[in-house]
Specification:
By secondary structure, the chain is an all-alpha fold. It has helices at about 1-15, 30, 50-70, 75-95, 115-130, 135-150, 155-175, 240-255, 265-270, 275-290, 295-325, 330-335, 365-380, 405-420, 425-445; strands at about 35, 45, 390, 400.
Length: about 450
């Protein structure tokens, strides 16, 4: 656990076609890889999404590679989503500074039609990974060498490298003073029923009341006007009938032993344990490959998705520490003294997969992330009811078939009840909040030119 804390703190501080069509029109012309011929003196040849997908995956792998360095788990979703957003924005901006199909995000007033797109994408992603995760320099350097070796040495390649460096520098400079490196601010725990206090094992040595990044909700959003923009209504009172129902619900479904979970509910609980920004990134990759999106559309989808995930985390943490609602494990341990005569406490109750993340309950961050991801995907493709198969790093060997992005969002949210981390109200309100964040990002950023 000490190593987990070390990793968390470390993460905080190191942080065209000729005819235009809207991306939500699904047809063979819109979704097929585009072959660019000579245009304004530059021969593009055939460009696929392979380099975008390779470096998008490199970002997820670089973060996964951090775990063995400390012997702990993956980065929390807050810094993870921030890094993903920066990597994918850099790739998007690099491509759209060669052929400007969509608005750029950070790199402005830069254009080089003669730059090699693959070289630009690889260099842009590499430089962000290197800057945000210095221990991953050998990994990133090796992949860059391989990526650039596949491109013939020429002026276009050199121009691509220069452009990629500029795209990475633009997003790195933009986020340099966003507040992420000072998000671990002091926090005073609550003492009254319903108020958050540290959960096991963070309530004892060596953590001594550790609560994660109480200031994350105050960092500068990527797209939202402010972290509180979509803050949900307050949680229910703990002596209400709705609270009592949710209390008994999570107490029964989320227990480590003696649970009423079905086999499918248990599978959902473990399947969605992995961080939501990673999970929905995988769904986006599945869609890109299934519909054969060109590099520009692919980079835009991935950038929009991770911008939404990053802002979902900021907005959610803003709400969490505004309301400071206690977690189910605390509520159940103290159920005999909470002032609600209809709750029965259990001092030995535990969640299915300890530990409960060390942040307040309401709203569920996992659920907000899921809602944001589903909103981006549904708006991008113009519909929700697209079937696909999905895997998870937290439950290897299992494949779930989903019939829509909203189904993923709902399963992702309810998994937190089944695992015992959240009250149902925090999950449902979280999904709704996430949808609003995702819709806002999609409607206002990286729009078609």
């Amino acid at each position: 656990m000490k190593k987990l804390l070390h990793l968390l703190l470390l993460s905080i501080f190191i942080f065209l076609s000729c005819q235009k069509q809207p991306d939500n029109v699904i047809n063979s012309k819109n979704l097929a890889d585009e072959t660019f011929t000579k245009s304004k003196g530059h021969a593009y040849g055939t460009i696929t999404s392979d380099m975008v997908l390779k470096w998008n995956e490199a970002g997820t792998q670089a973060i996964a590679n951090m775990a063995p360095l400390t012997g702990s788990g993956p980065l929390p979703p807050m810094p993870e989503s921030r890094i993903y957003a920066m990597i994918n924005v850099a790739m998007h901006d690099a491509l759209n500074s060669i052929v400007p199909k969509y608005q750029t995000y950070a790199l402005k007033n830069t254009r080089d039609k003669d730059a090699d797109a693959n070289a630009a994408v690889a260099q842009a992603a590499h430089d962000v990974i290197f800057a945000m995760l210095p221990p991953q320099q050998p990994f990133a350097d090796n992949l860059l060498t391989t990526s650039l070796a596949s491109i013939a040495d020429c002026d276009s390649k050199t121009r691509g490298i220069v452009l990629g460096k500029a795209a990475a520098k633009a997003i790195l400079n933009l986020r340099a003073n966003d507040g992420a490196d000072v998000a671990q601010i002091p926090y005073t725990q609550g003492t009254l029923p319903g108020q958050y206090r540290a959960t096991p094992p963070f309530d004892g040595p060596p953590f001594n009341g550790f609560v994660a990044v109480p200031g994350w909700g105050n960092i500068t959003p990527f797209c939202l006007a402010r972290g509180s923009q979509f803050r949900p209504v307050p949680p229910y009172a703990i002596n209400s009938a709705a609270y009592t129902a949710d209390y008994n619900d999570v107490k029964n479904l989320g227990a480590a032993t003696g649970s009423t979970r079905t086999a499918d509910q248990k599978e959902i609980a473990i399947f969605y344990l992995e961080n939501a920004p990673l999970h929905f990134n995988r769904i986006a990759r599945t869609m890109i490959e299934s519909y054969k999106l060109d590099p520009w559309k692919s980079a835009r989808l991935l950038a929009l998705l991770q911008l939404a995930e990053a802002d979902a985390n900021i907005a959610c943490l803003n709400a969490k520490f505004y309301y400071n609602f206690w977690r189910p494990i605390t509520a159940i341990h103290l159920g005999a003294s909470d002032g609600n005569p209809n709750t029965t406490g259990n001092a030995t109750w535990d969640v299915l997969a300890p530990p409960t993340p060390p942040v307040p309950d309401y709203p569920s961050n996992h659920s907000v992330n899921g809602g944001a991801g589903a909103a981006i995907l549904a708006h991008y493709f113009g519909r929700d009811n697209i079937s696909y198969k999905q895997i998870s790093s937290s439950l290897p060997g299992v494949t779930r078939t989903l019939n829509g992005f909203s189904q993923s969002a709902v399963e992702n949210a309810l998994s937190r009840v089944y695992v015992g981390y959240h009250f149902r109200n925090a999950c449902l309100k979280g999904v709704d909040m996430g949808y609003k964040v995702g819709k806002y990002v999609f409607e206002n950023y990286l729009k078609e030119k």
